[in-house]
Amino acid sequence: MLSLDVFRISSRSFKNNRLRTFLTILGISVGIGTIFFLVALGYGMQKLIIESIATESALLALDVTEKNENIKLNPEGLEGIRNIPEIENAFPMVSRQVRAEKGILSSDVNLNLVDAGYFDLDGIKLEKGEIFSDNGDGIIISKSILKLLGMDSDNGLNQKIILFIKKDVDLESSDNLIEKEYRVKGILKDSSEAIVYVPLQSIKNKIKIEQFSKIKVKAVSNDKVSVAKNAIIEKGFFVGSISELVEQAKQVFNIVNIMLVLFGAVALIVSAIGMFNTMTIALLERTQEIGTMKALGAAKIDIWKMFLMESMIIGFMGGSGGLLIGFLLSQVLNFAVNMLAKNFGGLIVELFYFPTWFIIFIVIFSTIVGLATGFYPAKRAAKLNALEALRYK
Questions:
Q1: How many Å apart are CA 95 and CA 93, to the nearest integer?
Q2: pLDDT band at 66, cuts 50/70/90?
Q3: How far is CA 172 from each of CA 104, 107, 196, rounded to the nearest angstrom?
Q4: Buried (b) or exposed (e) across 94-126, using 16+ Cβ within 10 A?
């Protein structure tokens, strides 16, 4: 029997038993759609969280801090780190408490002296404005400072703020203060602390810097991160990295995705049982037809093909319908969540992520489920005796 004839006979159920076939496909679609919806939610949350804590450059970054008091994180230590072959660049940070003033209002804030390249490595994101230049008078502040100094976040950019910075952090005299005016170049995103970032190069010659609070290091490539990390550790410093945090997050989300798949599998098992029942009923309804086909010379393999083809078609259509159901549900939920977030002043986010490989896998998987479900009815149909099948009522 030609493959085209097998396909035509297999697809007759879609015309003769439309309602039953539709309900069977719907059952498979609900099961597959549940798995697709839950796993897409898991991948979406993973992508959302990882992107919020790391940029592509941040994955190459290492945080270097002091391990003990004997080995200082000073300019000499910075130079030694920069000389490591696996390191592309290193950006120090000096943290201090300073006083910020705007008009008659003033407040103590946390000062971070950094170079512009530090932001990309640290994954710091701005809500408004742009990163300052190393030698300019621009600064980046948090929303908390805007509120403390009586400024509106909508027009905070380009406002001027005076900072009072100590030349020597250990001295308390009035002569020890540098009064310098800066212009707001950018506003930090999602920061509740009163933080101001100031170009290190703009003031490093006017203050005493004996020690760095932290150094951000960028490795030359992903495969050199661990080598660079070990080289810095050998120099006596403590080293941490966002990539380790990202890997831990991925491991947690892999477990979460497995749990979500197991929940969805329950619905799929129920729908697979319904499909098995449909194929068994189809066998009983077409027993005489099978007897006639065998009497006319149809081989066992042709009967196998006929039932397996029908179950595969139902499985494929169920998988395609599941993708549609899962996608529509995800869009509805994402829209509802974002509407609530917008009304309450939250961020607009994309809760779902659909990897291309997973979409292809879903279609193939549903087709295989259909094939497996139709295997037993196909085996029984192929074994039917032609005379007994013709006598069946």
A1: 6
A2: confident
A3: 23, 17, 21
A4: bebebbbebeeeebebbbbbbbbbbbbbbbbee
Task: Render the burial of 130-161: b for 16+ CB within 10 Å, e for the rest.
Answer: ebbeeeeebbbbbbbbbebbebeeeebbeeeb
Two structure tokens written together for 340: 């609530």
CA 20 vs. chain centroid, Å, equals 40
Hey, CA dihedral for 247, 252, 258, 263, is it positive or negative? negative
The model's pLDDT over 272-303, given as tens digits with 9 standing for 90+, comes to 777 777 777 766 666 666 667 767 666 777 77
Cα dihedral angle (207, 208, 213, 218), rounded to 10 degrees? Answer: 80
What is the rounded average pLDDT of the residues 22-36? 83
> Of residues 211 and 267, which shows the higher confidence score?
211
Distance CA 334, CA 329 (A): 8
pTM check: above 0.70:
no
Amino acid at 186: G
Q: In whole angstroms, what is the distance from residue 347 CA to residue 345 CA?
A: 7
- pLDDT of 121: 82
Phi, psi of 148 (to 5 degrees): -65, -30
Query: CB of 369 within 8 A of CB of 313?
Result: no
Pair 221, 60: CB distance under 8 Å: yes
Q: Where are the domains of the chain?
A: 3-54+247-391, 72-235
